[in-house]
Amino acid sequence: MPRSVNAVASRRRRKKILDLAKGYWGSRSKVYTVAKNTVEKGLQYAYRDRKTKKREFRALWIQRINAGARAHGLSYSQFIGKLGAKEIGLNRKVLADLAMNEPAAFAAIVEAVK
Q1: Rounded-to-integer distance, Cα 49 and Cα 98, Å
Q2: What is the set of domains in the chain, with CATH numbers?
Q3: What is the rounded distance in angstroms from the CA atom of residue 106 to the CA atom of residue 94?
Q4: pTM of the model
């Protein structure tokens, strides 16, 4: 009886990896074993950096809010503390956007918490 190897499934598996490696330099996009290692590492980085991206954006928002609050005579921690006390439910993303693009609206929020 002839040996059954299921070439369809194995070719599809290899093609999937090589498609993910499209655009990589040299053998990283051509040779299956090299491409497999590169793609696996790339997927690890993608998973890790989806978490890191959130962390970095939060830090950026905090810096922008701090700069806006200090222009009105408050530190970041004082500003956030007073926001909580007044029960103003704006998140850091919105506050940072206001501080950057709508200084008048941000100033009104600062005056509301003072």
Answers
A1: 27
A2: 7-113 (1.10.1900.20)
A3: 10
A4: 0.76
